[in-house]
Amino acid sequence: MSYTLMLSYNNGAERIFLPVLPEKIEVNQSGNSKSYDISQLGEVQVLTGHKLLDISFSGIFPAHPLYVSGQERVPFLEPSKYYHTLENWLSYQKPIRLTFSGSTLNLDLPVSIESFTYSESGGAVGDISYTLKLKEYRFYAAKKTPVEQSGGAATAAAPAAATNAPTRPDTRVQPKTYTLVSGDSLWKVAQKVLGSGTRYKEIQKLNGIQDSELTRLPVGKVLKLP
Prior knowledge:
Blueprint: E1 4-9, E2 14-17, E3 25-28, E4 34-38, E5 42-46, E6 54-61, H1 79-92, E7 96-101, E8 106-120, E9 128-136, E10 147-150, E11 153-156, E12 177-179, H2 186-194, H3 200-206, E13 222-224
Antiparallel strand pairs: 1-2, 1-7, 3-6, 4-5, 6-9, 7-8, 8-9, 10-11, 12-13
Helix pairs in contact: 2-3
């Protein structure tokens, strides 16, 4: 059985595999019920779904390569690479993704970093001990409710059922600039970073590029993106 624990950011553009699996992963799930006092009935309890998962674990970032039985080999990185990456993600104030593959427990969900602490272990020079606390993240967005006129009175129409709704939101971070490399064209850049090559005109206009310059764009030129 192979075990892996990966943390990633920006839809997998940045990711780290923990080099040593934690001895224990704690997952706390609790209800979100509420109690009310009803006249002539007394206290009643209303179930309103469950609260967000709390996930925590501790481990080490070793100063030297280690191999743990049952875990796939992962590239060895210096301890500083791990804690600097996690510190950066914490500062971004955006969700990351936790992916854990085990024997019975499997997790694959967006989470926020609630706290991250680390220190150098006294008995093993260079090893970094850490504790990471995460909370399940739910993507949400305000929805516009159309208003229908019925008999002179405005009524809120029931929202239409979502069709073909994505099961996993796109968490990629849109870059603000792009540096041209060999073989690039504005069409390729628009396809790569904006999702459609037909949007190349937006990049051209934003950067003041003339039509005569389109076929001789210099490598290394930094383009502003819409």
